[in-house]
Every structure is written in C-alpha cells, then in structure tokens.
Amino acid sequence: MAEVYHYQPSPPSSAGAMQIAMSGERTPTSVSSRRSTTPGSFYKADTPEFEQRGGGSGSSTGVKRWKRLHEQQTMEQLSSLRHEKKESILIAKQKARETARKISVELLAKEWLSENQATVEIRAYLVDKLLPTLILGVEKLLTVVDFQELADKDRNANFNPLNFLAQYLLRNNPKYSNFAEASPYVRGIRQVSEDLRMQLFNMEDNRLAKIKADVKRRRTEREYKQHLTQLEKIRRSNCLLTQFTEWNVAVDGRVELSLFQNALRSFNEVAEHFPEELKRVSRLGHSLEPTDETGITLTLNEFVKYMNTYIENLPREVFEQFMVHMSKCAAAYRASAEREQRRIYLSNLFMRCDHSGIALLDRHRILNLFEQYWDQMKNDQNCKGLRNPRQWPVVEVDEADDSVGDDEEEDEPSTQQTTEEVAQESQQVLPQPPPASIESTQKTLDENKDLKEEVKTETKEEEIKEEQKVEVEGNKTEENPTQEPEVVETGETPQEIKQEGKDGETQNGQVKEAESKDGESNEEVKDGEAKDGEVKDGEVKEAEVKEVKEAELKEAEVKDAELKDAEVKEAEVKEAEVKEAEVKEATPEKKETADSEKEKNETKKATDTGSGTDTVKPVKPKSALKVEREEPVGQTGRISVTFAEGTTFNREKTGLTLTSRSQSQMSAFDENSLNVSQFVQLTETFLGDEPVKDVFTRLLKFIKDGYEETEDEKMDRLTKARREAVSAKRKSMIDVLFEKWDNDGSGYLDLEEVESVMAKYKDGQEVEAIYYAKEEMKKKSRFQDQRLSKREFRMLIQLVVQEIPGSETFDSLLEFLTNSVERSYSDRIRGEARKKWLQQIVTAAETGGASMEPVYRAVFQALYKDAEAHGGGKKISANISMSERNVKFPQRGETCLRYVAATPEDADYVLDKILYNDMKGVSFAALESGKPIHVPRVGNHGNIHFWNTRRRPEEREGSFIVIPLKDKRKRAFGLLGIDTIADPHTKAIFITHEIQFFQGIAKAFSIAYHHVDMRRKLLRITESAVSWIQRRSPHVREVVEYMAEPDSKGMDYVLRKMLTTVPKGPPEYCAKPPRLERKDNLFRDYLFKCVDNSETVTADAYGERHLAFPLRDDDGKAIALVDISIGDMKKLPPHENKEIQRMLRILQMAHKEITKEFNGAEKMRILEGEQDDEARTDIMFDRLMLMELRDNVSKLDQQAYAELRSYKDPPQIICDILKATLAIFFLDKAEEGEFDDWIRIKTYINIDLSQKITAYDPTAQKDLNLPADKIELYMKDVPHGEVAKHGSLPGQYMYNWVFVCLSLIEHMKKMRQNEDEGVSSDAVSDKEEDVNMDDQQKTEAE
Q1: What dihedral angle (degrees, nearest 10) is formed by the CA atoms of 1274, 1279, 1284, 1285?
Q2: How far apart are CA 1327 and CA 872, in angstroms?
Q3: Which helix (H) or strand (E) holds 1262?
C-alpha cells in the first residue's frame, strides 16, 4: 500500500511556527483513512480544534489571514503544477506525433544506406542531386492523382503525369527554390547524404590502405616467386650442365644440334602417355624447328640457352620427367658408340669372308656357324645373352624350329625382368660413365687426342671399303648395267684396304694387337690372312680366270647371244684381277711393316686403357652415331637405338653418292644370301642385348675360320652375278627403247607396228625368226592381245635375239630399232612433259598414305595441263567410275558402275551415282570389250546418258571418250570418262596423240589404284592380326603398323603411322597418318633399320622393349612393319611369344598372297564366304589360320586321340575345349547335356572328328545361324596360357580352331548385316535415279 504525506506549509511568523511546533507532528495515515476533501475543507475541519487550544480574537485574525495566504499560495502552486502537467502532456503528444512521422520518413531515406561499397559513389550522387526534388515531385503527383481520383478512371486526356512531373521539376529547381528543404523526407535525405559522404571518405581511406597493403603483399609474393624462379632456373641450368656431359662431348666441347632436336621432338611423343593433368602442361615453350641437317654443333652454354627456350615454362614435375628422358637419350647416344665399334669389326669380317668379291655371303652357312657356336658356348656363363639361332628373331618366323625348346623360354623367372634391370646388370661390360664435369671430360679427350686422330683416318678408310661394297650391292639391287664393272672391281676391296693400312692407322692393326693380348698369334689372325691374301690370291685369281673362261665357253654353246658380252666382261675382270695381284705381290714387305707398326701402336693403347685379356679392344670412334644409311644395322642392345646419317661430327666421312644411298636404303630379303648390312644385323641379333667382349671376339674368329667356300661355289656366285649384270643391262636398254617408242606415255605399243618395224631388220631376212618369237611369246604370255606392255615387249625382244644367231644380235637389233623410232623435237618435248605428269600420278599413290584423294587430284591436274598445253586449250570434264558386282538389283545386270571421282563442275551430278546396264550409255560396251570408245559428237550419237538433266539438247555438243582401266591381267575394273561438252567451241574433238595420252593416264591410274588398294587390303589384314595379338598376348602394351613410302625428294623413304592399338577396344586407323623421317627419329631408328634390312629388329626406345617385324613384298623388300611394344619387360612369357610368332607368320603369308594377286596371280577362294572380294580381304587372316589348323589336325594320328581317350578324369580345361568343339557339330546334343558326361565325349574322339574339323566351313550360309554366344560359354573359363601347359596337341589345335571358327562366323554375320543395310539405302537412291531418268526423257522429248 502506498503512503501519502500531508502538506505542511511553513508558518508566516514565529508565533505561528511555535504553535505549529507545539501542536505536535502529524503522522502519516493510510489512503483509506483520508477524506475526499479539498485543501480548504481540510483546514476548515481542523480550525475549531485549533481555536479551542489557541483561543483569542487577535490571534484568530492572523490565522485567517495566514490561512487565506496559504490557500492562495497553495492554489497558485496547484495551478502551476496543473498547467505544467498539461503542457508536458501536450509536448509528449507532440513528440509522439513527431516521432511517429519521423520514423517512417527516416526509414525511407535510410534505404539509401547500404553495405554495398561498390555503389557508394553512385548513391551519394543520387541522394545529393536528384532525389530531394524528384521524390517530392512524385509525392505531389500521387497526391493529385488521389485527389482527382484519376487512378480509378480511364486515361484522362487532359492530364499527363509525365508533363506534370516535368513542370514540377522545372518550377522547383533547387538552384532557384528551397521549397524542398521543408519536407521531412528531404531533411532525412540530407542526413543520409552526410552519412554517405562520411562512408565514402572512410572507404577511400580504407581502400587506399588496402591497396597499399595489397601492393606490398603482391610485391613480396612476386619477389619470393622471382627468387624461387631464379633458384629453379639455376637448378635447371645446373641439371643441364651436368646432363651435357653425358653426351660424349667431342674434343672441342661441342655436340650436334640435331641430337637435342630429336630429344625434344621425342619428348612430345613421350608426353602423350602422361596423365591428362600433366599432358596439358607438358607442351614445350614454342614449336620445334626443322631438324638441322647442316651439322651445327653447340657448346655447353649454347646448349643450356637453347634448351631453356623450350623448357623454362615446364612445371617442376614435368621438368624432372624431361631430364629422365634426356638421360635416356644420352644413354642411347653412348650405347651407339659400342654398336658402331661392333659394326666396324663385323663389316671387316664380312669382307674377309666375301671370297668371291660380290658383297654377298651364304645365309644358311652363316646360320649354321651360329648354331655350331651356340652348341659349343651355350653352357658358358658369359654366353647366356646369346639368342638361340634356331629360334626367332635370329631366323624367320617360318624357319623357327618348334621341335626344339628355346632356352629363353625355359628361363621363366627372368620373363618379368625389366630393361632398367638389364641396364644395371650390363654396367660391367659397358664403358664407364662420362666424367661429371666439362673440365674432366675435356681433359680426358685431350689426353686421347692422338687416338682420335687415328680413329678419324681409320674410319675414313673403313668407309671406303663399305662404300665400295654397298655400291656393288646397289648395282645388283637396281640391276643397272652401266655400273656393271664395279661389281668385279669391288671384289678386290679387302686387299686394297690392306694396302691402305700401311700408314699404321687402320683398324686391322688394332684388332690384331688386341687379339695378341689373349695369347693368340697376330700373324694367325691378321698377318696370316694378309699373307694368304698375297700368296693365294694370285693362284685363286688365275684359277678363277681359267674357270671363268671354261664357264663362258660352255655358256656360249648354250646361248650364243650372250657370248660376246660375257667375254668382254670377263676380260675386264681378268685384267683388274691380274693388275691387283701384281700390286699385292710387289708390296708384301711394306704391308708387313705397316702391320707391325700398327701392332705396336695398338699394344701401347691397349696397355694404357687396361684392356686386360680381352681379345678385341673396341676403339671409341670420334662420332658415336656415325652410321651411314647405306649400311643399316638393326640393334638389340640395352638401349639399342641406332642413328641415321647426319648425326656425326665428321661430315667428310660420308663418301657415298646419293644414288648409292638410295639403292642401299632398302635391302631385299633373300633366304640364301646376306649383304653386309643384313649380316651385321643378323649377327647383332644373335649376340643379344649386351654381348661380352670376349664372346664377341671369339665369335669373330669362329666365323672367320669357319666360313669357307669351294672354288665351284665362288665361280657359281661370280657367274650368277655377271649373268644378273648382263640381264640388268639388257633390261635397262629395252626399257629405254620402249619409253622412246611410247612417246605419249600410253604404256602400250601396238603389236602390228612393232612387228612391221622389226620385219625391216636386215632387209627382211629375219622375218621368220621374228614370227617364231612372236608365237612363242603368245604361248608364254597368258594375257596377250594386240598391244604390248613393257614386260611383253621385253620378252619379245629377248625371244627374237634367241632366234637369231650371233653374239652381236642384241646390240645390233636394239640399235636398229632405236634408229627406226626417231621422234621430232616437238614430239620429244611433248612426250617428256606427259611422262612427267604420268609419273606424278604414280608418285601421288606412293606418297599419299593409302589414300585415293591425291591420285584423283593428280589425274585431273594432268588432264587439265595437257588440255591447256597440247589440246588447244580445250575445256574438259572427267570422271572415274569403278565396276562393282550388282548384288542389290541383279535384274538390272550383273555389274554396275559407281562414279567415285569427278571434276568440280560435274561432281554434283555424277559423284556417287550408279550406272546400271539397262541405262543408256557406251560405258558397258567399253568395259566388256576392253577398248576405248570415242564419240566425236555426242549430240548425234543417241545412246549417251546425261547425268545433268538440266542441260538443254542444243547444249549437248562436244566429244566424249571412255577408256577402260585395266589390271595386270588386262581385265577392266573401271572406266575413265573425258568429255568436252562444257567447251564453248563447236569443234572440240580429241585427236590421236591426245587419245594415246588418255590411255597413258588410264594406265598410270591403274598402277596407282592397285598400289593404294593393295595398301588398304594389307592394312585390313594387319588389323585382324593385331586384334588376335591383343586377345592372345595381354602383356603386349601397344602394336603400331608403319608403311614405307618414298619421301618428297626421292632420296630416302619415310614411314607412315597407319594403325595403332588403344588400351581398350579394337585397333584404330590414323585419320591423318603422320610421317616419320629418319632425321627426326634418331632415337627410334630401329624402325628404319627394320625396313633397311628387311629383318626383325629388337630394340629399347625410351625405356620400352620393341619388336619390329617387317612385312615384305614379292621382291623381299619391306613395304611395312609391325612395331610391338612390351613395355619395360625384357621378354614375353613363352606361350605369348609363340602366339606372336604364329600371328606374324600368318600375317606374312597373307601379305605374300595379296602381293602375288596384285602382280597377276590367281586369287585363292577356299571358303564359301570368299566369293566377294571385300569379304575375302576381311576374313583372309582368319582363313589362313583355319587352313593351318586344318593341316595340323589332319596330321594327328590315332595315338594322339588315344591319348585324349586315356583320361579317366580329364582336366576341366580339356573337357570344356572338347565340349565347344563338339557343340559346333552337335549343338542340340550339347544343349541337352549329353556332353557333360566324359564317357560320352570319348566316343566322339576319333578320326571322324578330325575329318569333320578339316571339312568344316564356318562361312557357309547354312552355318551362319550357329549361335556363337552359346559356344563361347564353354570357353569362357579356359585361359589361353593354361591350354599349352597341359601339353595336349589335339587340345591346343581344337582350342584355336574353335576361336577361329567363331571369329569367321561373326565376320560373316556383320558383313551380311551391312549388306542388308546397304540395300535399303540403294533402293532410295535407285528411285531418285528413276525420277532423274524420267526428267531426262521429258527434256529430250521437249
């Protein structure tokens, strides 16, 4: 309860105060005891009591007065209090009203205050300049709208809000009016503007401080990064300085630029296998420049500067990978020095063994020596690296002895040995690593300066020998008769080089002294050979001369036509041999003195280098990569990558001419002979990865002592070489005559014309001989007609020479014919130009990467050029059509013509159209007759089909000629059509020499087309082989096929990457096959060595083992190669190795079959599915596998099947194989479960099963419905590697047979499906053609 105190005013006088004091103090009372009275009444109530105590009148008057004053004062005070309270209430209400109004206005204005600092300046401008007036104008506008109720009415034409607002803004311009300041909103806006200015000011200060701090931070970070970059740059420079010392720096401290360019280029290839995140950042600083071919060399500083331009932006991780790659390249460069040393020794050995002097050795005899050496040394610990000479890759895949186990395959634990482990194991036999610094390297090289000078001279002399040998080989390869005497002269190369060794600088002396260290006699190894060469050579040569004369006499009795030429050649040989024998006999003492001096020098060098007891001390050549192209050698070393010409320090060593280089580039494989490069390659393959020097030396001596030829063998080789030289000379002379006769390049000569000219020989005295020769040629030539090809013309000349007696018949006949076909100067100029254009067509096919587009382009360009130069400026159009078997609409004819190429003006009307036999035209008449058909005026012919139906009849004037395209069997496979309908001249008729040139274009196109077609078919066959290799050899990492083709200069060849495998999926064709040039691929030169020698090459490139297998044509030259990469493994598991050999053998068989067919042989069609040429190509590889398995199964006897039946509880693998085999013949029984019982399976294992297997054709139409997926279920749990381990030949054959059959069935099903899809599309196009024909008929009728 609240307490209330009564009011006690102060008395006006002391008496009153005393009275009040005497009356005592009042006590507070509760609110409930108070009376509801006014202050006056309260005092009135108390007065009587006061008067009773005080008493007296005088006092009462004072009291009254006091009361009155008191009451008056009290009332005044109460009034003032009441007034103050009222005013405070009014003020509070006013403040409340102002507060309520102020809050809404400020909130509206405060909306312009935002935390978005990006718009502070804009908002400050709007708040300060625009909003105070605009907002009031909008407010006034809304007020008027509400007052006039315009919002609820239709649009008032008398009131425009925009005009109203504009008027308001003009009348209240802040420059002339401050009316807006009276608005509370404007006042709020002004406050907001001040706040924004402060915010902007504060923000500017903070921004400046932040910018300064950010700049400082960035500068610090940049300086730190620059510091790290500088440190990294210094580290990389140091790495490059160290790496430079690994490149066998020359005496002058320089290394060739081309090596580093190849290393950079190869790094791009390696980077393609990096993870995706590294691949994106692995690009070099800028694009690579063309590989240097001028011999520029770099010093240490130049090397660092050059490399930094490419690698300075590489991330650290990628740089480390780059340095690893550079180290591998440097190691390959160093390893090439050892191979170059072995090459020199092996080349010398080859020339010592080449007793007949024709630069060829007997291949079987060399392989026999390898086998003997292997049998003697295979138990020697040092000979573990030798490869079995009875197994691939030493011998060919079809020569490998499967009955003899390969020791490499027995060494199962070493299968997974990597190339890096091999490299570590081989450090004992490799030369010591290069010094760690340039100074130490320079010092070492300076100490051996004399040795380098001797090596330089010695290498020159060795190259002279090799050049002479290779020139002989090149002459034989090209069969160039103009260089025939060199064949004989080169036979004396070994003795000539012995004479050159008299200065004590040749390699022979070094080898002799090294052999003397092993306790062997120098005279026995070297001097003995020299003396034998001096003493016996004369006797041998005299015997050779005598026997050659006897052989010539016998040969003359058989063929008088070759007598005189052979005598001339033999006389030259005899004269050269006698002269050289006299020189040798006159200088034996000088040679012995020179040999002794060489021995002393070599002894001193061997002692200085601490060669120990090694019989051969390889001398490090000045250039580790000096490998001439004319002697390509494949390698098998740890990093066995050889290098091409142009990578050495001494450019003067290259002594061969360009012609000899191109001749020796691609050596043809001959199973009976070896040239020098093939011998070196074969020997190195036999020696293995890293041969021990002692093993290598003993092999040299073993071959030198073991290779012997009898006099009869030498004479047979000489006679054969001379006969080939004579044949080559005559062939070249006849070809020259043919080209001269065929001035317009048609590729054919008219038989009647040739016969009429030859009949004038000797005034017609030899007409009868010419007639007999012609009849004999018709018997021998299966495809004879009234036109002679170059081969048939050559055959006719040779037969005529044989019919006419006399040794000078050939020369006189050719001289007569040459004089009889003299051409005028203008004709010769025209013929040369046309032959150049024809050659461009063939070249386009050879260099086009198995594409027909360049060929079509070259054909049309040749036609355009000839029409402009020799056709009177005719405007011609041309098209090419191919004959196809009409399987879609056989009622319209057995064959049809599909247009595959056309000139641009006709492409829209002709391209990809099909001409059927029931349509107008002369094309099928030319196709069937095989002869050109010329229509001088197409408008008057009436049987010409016009594809362009929009051409009016009066515009259909001009000439038209259609020329058959023929293969080597002179069967037409297409047509070349040429017309002048678009020519505006009225007389645009083809004349004779133009028609002959068109025939030449058809012949050139035919050659080009078959070249490309053969390449394409080989690619498809290889694709099948690669697919099988992927399935059967899981350890194979990658398989790539390259094709060889001439380069643009015609000096060398390049490789085209055509086909490659992907990690998952079938092989893929390269859309734009890249070109690999020799100069750009020094560290993958094994590819070029494989093509050079046409032999298998094993090599390590970039840390991966590669097997390069050549694919040869009929002549034995490699036209393609298959590069198999097995990663870092040393060798494949035995069963995978055997499978690869099997696949490569079948692939080579398929290539041989294809090349023979394109050379005119009959096509083998064994299976029913091979009736179609396209299908035949796709299944050829599988068909060859099937035929091989058929042959193997047919050779199984009763004992082999009895072995299978002898199982009581056979392995599950054998059961599954037999179930799958029987399911192909008895699928119903297999599904019923009859073959789940082994007892029942055994009843089918007999000779009858073998007969069923050999007779089964999986491509037959009746077997295409066989569900292959059901049969595959039986084989899904049979791993290929486990089949061979059970040792069951029938089981292995049946396992492979089942898979081949299933593959053939799948192939045929896909082809049938594609054919069905093609029928529907062709039906639509056929309807369109019918519509076009109707339009054409209507146009003609009009």
Answers
A1: -110
A2: 41
A3: none
Tell me how far apart the alpha carbons of residues 739 and 1120 are, in angstroms, rounded to a whole number: 31
Tell me, what amino acid is at 1292?
Answer: Q
- Tell me how far apart the alpha carbons of residues 262 and 265 are, in angstroms, rounded to a whole number: 5
User: pLDDT value at position 1021?
Assistant: 93
The segments of the chain whose pLDDT lies below 70 read: 1-59, 99-120, 177-185, 199-209, 402-665, 782-784, 986-987, 1263, 1287, 1316-1342
Distance CA 189, CA 173 (A): 17
Q: Which residues contact 315 (CB under 8 A, 6 or more apart)?
A: 278, 281
Cis peptide before 393 (omega within 30 of 0): yes
What pLDDT score was predicted for residue 182? 60
Name residue 1038's beta-bridge partners.
1125
Residues 512, 513, 517, 521: what is their CA dihedral angle, to the nearest 10 degrees? 50
3-class SS of residue 1207: coil
* Residue 207 confidence (pLDDT): 64
Residue 527 DSSP class: I
- Tokens representing 998? 């068109």
For the chain, the straight-line distance linking the first and the last C-alpha, in angstroms and rounded, comes to: 130
- Distance between CA atoms of residues 679 and 924, nearest Å: 54
Spatial separation of the C-alpha atoms in residues 713 and 360, rounded to whole Å: 12
Tokens of 1104: 């991966």
pLDDT in tens, 705-752: 999 888 888 888 888 888 888 988 999 999 999 888 888 888 888 888
1110's enclosing H/E stretch is strand 1104-1112
Q: Whole-angstrom Cα distance, residue 568 to residue 575?
A: 11
At 1243, phi and psi to the nearest 5?
-70, -20
Check: CB of residue 467 under 8 Å from CB of residue 655. Answer: yes
Count of residues making up the chain: 1342
> What single-letter DSSP state applies at residue 788?
E
- Three-state DSSP at 782 gives coil
Nearest-angstrom CA–CA distance, 494 and 349: 10
970 with 783: CB under 8 angstroms? yes
Q: How many CA atoms lie within 13 A of 276 on its CB side?
A: 0
pTM summary value: 0.68
Q: Is 978 helix (H, G, I), strand (E, B) or coil?
A: strand
Compute φ and ψ for 1121, nearest 5 degrees: -150, 155
Q: Find out whether 487 and 569 touch, Cβ atoms under 8 Å.
A: no
651 CB neighbour count, 10 Å cutoff: 12
CA distance 565 to 571: 10
Q: What are phi and psi of 1135, to 5 degrees?
A: -70, -35
Backbone angles phi, psi at 291, to 5 degrees: -65, 135
671 and 363 in contact (C-beta within 8 Å)? yes
Q: Give residue 410's identity as a one-letter amino acid code.
A: E
* Cβ-contact 709, 362 below 8 angstroms: yes
**pLDDT computed for residue 622 by the predictor:** 34
Residue 542: phi, psi to the nearest 5?
Answer: -65, -40
List the alpha helices (DSSP H) in 930-1032.
992-1032
Q: Which two tokens stand for residue 1002?
A: 């058809």
Question: DSSP readout, 1038-1100?
Answer: EEEEEEEEE-TTSSSEEEEEEEE--SSSS-EE-SSPPEE-GGG-GGGTHHHHHHHHTS-EEEE
Let me know if 265 is exposed, middle or buried by CB neighbors in 10 A (0-12, 13-18, 19+): middle
Structure tokens at 668: 């043809």
- What integer pLDDT is reported at residue 782 of this predicted model? 64
SS (HEC) of 430-477? CCCCCCCCHHHHHHHHHHCHHHHHHHHHHHHHHHHHHHHHHHHHHHHH
The pLDDT tens digits of the residues spanning 523-572 come to: 333 343 333 433 334 443 344 444 444 444 444 443 444 434 444 344 44
